[in-house]
């Protein structure tokens, strides 16, 4: 199991309590004192949270606990929510080629330029980028639109055409999504 790190900074009483129940928690619990603050400032991963009594300058992922006493269940709930928020934030931005796809705001971003996407356009990009081979029209119909039809429909082609046009108009990239005899692929 991949444990997240819950770092308790300069809060020995809280560390002792959590350390006693650590087998029931989904976190690795680490205590860091004021003397070891420099080690803590070097940590820049998203898999941790730092519980602090007072906010610390230049420290990532802090959770302020300044209203004591606090019920243990409320503390654990707050920590879980913070981990969920961070996880959501990490997964909301996808790197595709030199672009960033912000799934939450449905924007494709390159440097200081961005285009607004529809939900379907976002889903098309995500689905094609997650495939290691060309994606057929039928595959897109089934997995992006949620239906399969033997009828001749140009819905997929129309969406791809409009998406390519948006990307070209803003980024001047004609080859973000390319088509071949097997379907569509994102040109890496």
Could you please describe the fold and organization of this structure?
The mean pLDDT is 86. Helix 4 crosses helix 5 (137-145). The strands form three sheets. The protein has a four-stranded parallel β-sheet, covered by helices on one side. A four-stranded antiparallel β-sheet has the order 5-6-7-8. It has a two-stranded antiparallel sheet with strand order 9-10. The chain is elongated and about 65 Å long. The protein has 188 residues and is of the alpha/beta class. It has six helices and ten strands; from the N terminus they run E-H-E-H-E-E-H-E-E-E-E-H-H-H-E-E.
Give me the Rg, rounded.
Answer: 23 Å
Going across the major beta sheet, what is the strand order? 2-1-3-4
Strand content: 15-25%
Number of helices: 6
Average of per-residue pLDDT values: 86
Can you tell me the overall shape? elongated
Taking the sheet with the most strands, its summary is: 4 strands, parallel
Listing every helix as H and every strand as E from the N terminus to the C terminus, the arrangement reads EHEHEEHEEEEHHHEE
Structural class: alpha/beta
- The total of beta strands comes to 10
Quote the distance from N terminus to C terminus: 33 Å
Oligomer: single chain
Q: Report the helical percentage.
A: 25-40%
**Which parts are unreliable, with pLDDT below 50 for 5 consecutive residues or more?**
none
